[in-house]
Every structure is written in C-alpha cells, then in structure tokens.
Amino acid sequence: MFQGIEHTAISSPDPQKLAQWYVDHLEFRINYTYSGNYFVRAENGSMLEIIPAATPLAAPQTTANNKDGGIRHLAIANDDFDAAYASLQAKGVHFVGEPFEAQGNRLVFFNDLDGNLLHLIQRANPLP
Asked: How far apart, in Å, are the Cα atoms of 25 and each of 59, 84, 126?
C-alpha cells in the first residue's frame, strides 16, 4: 500500500531561484511547476517541491547539528565524491566544515541558496 516518500517540500522566499540553484549545482531538473511551486527531480528519481514561503529561513544552518528536532539535512548521493566536492567548490557553495570520513563513508555538509543544510555522501557500502 505505502510505497515511500514521493517528495519533500522546502519553502523558499524565491522558489524559482532556489529550484534553479538545485539545477545549476546538483544536476536536478525542473520536472513540474504550478502556481509558483517547483518540483525538481534528481537523476535517481528523488524529488523536492519548492514552495513559496511567507518569510525566509530564520537563520542559515551553519552547523551540522543533527541533534535538534525536525528534519536536519538532505543527503545528496553521488558517484564520485572528489569530483562532486570540487564542482560545488568551483560554484562557490558554502561548506559547513571540511570533508570527513565516518564508518567508511565520505561526507561534507553544505548549504543551499536559502541556507538549508545538505550533505554530500559517498557510502563505502550501500544501505540494506
């Protein structure tokens, strides 16, 4: 009956601009738009819906604090960590710390255009 998460919504004061950021920086594509909402789809089929916000994010997430309640980050899969990291660096992405390794996985946290926290992850072994 339940198939999984179809999309995750992020509110933004400028949905078109944030949607284009995901296209320009993470190779998503704008899949569908309506009434100021933008669905962006990644190569693996995962989707974000970027919707109009009445206010901007209270403050950019400048630490990778995964202990507070609520959604803490979006993890971005890739097939070449070093190339993906270099690409984001070249595009001026704001990183929250340096790349590190945890349990054989390579990670680095960064912010999108609105300050939402994301992290690049390359797993040593796929999750079961």
From this structure: 21, 10, 24
Which residues, in sequence order, are CB contacts of 87 under 8 Å at separation 6+? 25
Q: Is the same domain home to 19 and 72?
A: no
Give the H/E segment covering residue 30: strand 29-34
Cα separation, 107 vs 119, whole angstroms: 7
Give me the residues paired with residue 50 across strands.
10, 38
Q: pLDDT per residue over 55-108, tens digit each? A: 877 766 677 766 666 678 899 999 999 999 999 999 999 999 999 999 999 999
The boundaries of the domain holding residue 107 are: 57-128
Same-domain status, 46 and 25: yes
- Half-sphere exposure of 73 toward its Cβ, with a 13 Å CA cutoff? 21
Diameter over CA atoms, the chain: 43
Give this prediction's pTM: 0.88
